[in-house]
């Protein structure tokens, strides 16, 4: 063997090792052409003949190894968040597996008559116009003739059509409940070698009866889209043991006629409290709606504000020894009520994350705060675990879509040649997550319960997620601003009304005009 041949062989061996190293440490989702380009850049300026050997070696390597293994991504939940996350993954060439414990899609929008374990009720109409409850690729409503505030069936139908149109429906494993999640700390995710793989265990019910089948698999990333309206939250009220009537939570509510002739107290006056009070008032003798935003009653000698048979009273402070209810010192009324309905919201829950999960995740009952999260999207330590839709007081569908785009941009970042935003290093993520968890949310003075509140702060978050995802452009800016304007308009119309009274804001029909960042609206009784 000549000296030249020996040196060429050594160089060849060296380059093969280099190639193996790069394949291991980069991502084997790099397209072969990208790999070739990188190797060439590293060698060609030194030795042209070496460069040609390299190219041959890589061609041989790529011929022997099939195309890179597809990324394995799981989604937990086929509600509005899970469906759009699946669609965004598909749009980026990744086919996910979706686990859904129900036998249908839609999550909260799957209405079941007389159910006591689902938050949806028969009379519900949306509190956002459908022109806001749409994903960007699949606009909804906007005919300017029919009401924008639609029924739960309409929303379910929209989600069903969306899932069908974009091929998401075929990816759902129905009747499959994820029971356990484990972080495989010693197994590298193929999406990013600094992330761990995630193992899921799930049970699939046999619709024909018989035993459920247990399965497990590991994934390069898992998107948690399990919703947060399944665990009823009830406040601790002093003297509750004295109460002689019935109690329930708004999650159990379906049919207002069961309150015929009763005196009913709704504790909590946001969306659930206001809607339930209005529906029930058509059957009940009297309804009290107890809410923090009740105006000061001192000016009215303690007399509550009233519309029809609904009285708006301050927060419920105690049940007295004789079972009457107190609403604090400013309210003169202390009624006896037949039923208390707690319209006091929900807690986050992740029953599949526990001590066995190798994961630090705090979700304390009553706190309504999940930590540690980076940008309220990624688990700060393990970004292979992402959460869609934790925030409240947002326009959910468009918000979920942008969150999904940000998450997916990081899952496929390893296959991008260059450019684009990427997650900061671990230390930075943990520091930011700690600060965010201790912030009390964006609105001063803040509270733990408001950590995930956004309201008027959501638009900046939308822009941020869009920039993370690299989807920000003029059209998107127009879209977000139009959403903001419609949201502000419909919210303003709603907030002027007596909660539990006539819901005239729902008789509006909106038409979007994104190009001019505006909208038209008109009253409509259809
Ligand atoms: C009563 C009510 C009215 C609302 N009205 C409006 C409105 O008018 N407009 C609006 O935009 N938003 C409204 N919302 C907010 C609504 O929650 C969001 O619009 C959105 O539908 C939430 O979607 P999600 O996918 O995050 O959660 P969900 O819809 O709750 O979906 C979560 C899914 O995950 C599944 N799942 C959970 N755990 C597991 C597990 N371990 N394994 C497998 N699957 C699992 C569930 O079965 C469910 O299908 C309302 C919410 C409620 C409760
Ligand atoms: N038609 C619709 O579209 C519709 C209907 C129902 C629900 N929803 C949606 O469902 C989700 C949940 O809404 P929600 O209304 O059930 O829950 P929520 O928004 O969490 O509101 C719970 C309310 O309970 C109050 N509360 C707690 N303890 C109280 C006490 N001791 N006395 C008086 N009030 C007390 C809270 O007041 P503080 O915050 O002041 O403590 C808060 O206003 C939201 O996304 C909502 O938009 C929509």
What are the main properties of this structure?
five-stranded parallel beta sheet; binds flavin-adenine dinucleotide; 526 residues; globular; FAD/NAD(P)-binding domain; binds NADP nicotinamide-adenine-dinucleotide phosphate; 29% helix; 19% strand; alpha/beta; 3 domains; six-stranded mixed beta sheet; 24 strands; disordered N terminus
Largest sheet: spatial strand order: 9-16-10-11-13-12
Strand composition percent: 15-25%
At the first level of CATH, what is the class of the largest domain?
A: Alpha Beta
CATH evolutionary superfamily of the largest domain: FAD/NAD(P)-binding domain
CATH-derived topology of the largest domain: FAD/NAD(P)-binding domain
Shape: globular
Our Rg estimate from Cα atoms comes to 28 Å
The low-pLDDT segments are 1-64
Annotation field: number of helices? 10
Span between N and C termini? 90 Å
Task: Give the helix/strand class.
Answer: alpha/beta
How would you concisely characterize the structure shown here?
By secondary structure, the chain is of the alpha/beta class. The chain has helices at 3-25, 32-43, 48-64, 80-91, 152-165, 271-281, 396-411, 426-437, 458-469, 474-495; strands at 73-76, 97-99, 172-173, 176-188, 196-204, 213-219, 221-224, 231-232, 246-249, 263-267, 286-290, 305-307, 310-313, 318-319, 325-326, 339-342, 346-347, 362-363, 370-371, 373-374, 378-379, 385-387, 508-513, 518-523.
Structure description:
There is one protein chain. Helix 2 (32-43) packs antiparallel against helix 3 (48-64), helix 4 (80-91) crosses helix 7 (396-411) and helix 9 (458-469) packs antiparallel against helix 10. The longest helix has 23 residues, at 3-25. The strands form eight sheets. Strands 9-16-10-11-13-12 form a six-stranded mixed sheet, covered by helices on one side. The protein is of the alpha/beta class and 526 residues long. The chain starts with a helix and ends with a strand. It contains ten helices and 24 strands. The relative contact order is 0.12. Helices cover 29% and strands 19% of the residues. It has helices at 3-25, 32-43, 48-64, 80-91, 152-165, 271-281, 396-411, 426-437, 458-469, 474-495, and strands spanning 73-76, 97-99, 172-173, 176-188, 196-204, 213-219, 221-224, 231-232, 246-249, 263-267, 286-290, 305-307, 310-313, 318-319, 325-326, 339-342, 346-347, 362-363, 370-371, 373-374, 378-379, 385-387, 508-513, 518-523. It has three domains: 3-64, no CATH class; 73-231 and 347-523, FAD/NAD(P)-binding domain (3-Layer(bba) Sandwich); 234-344, FAD/NAD(P)-binding domain, CATH 3.50.50. Flavin-adenine dinucleotide is lined by residues 76-82, 99-102, 107-109, 119-120, 126-128, 133, 177-178, 225-227, 229, 352, 389, 396-397.
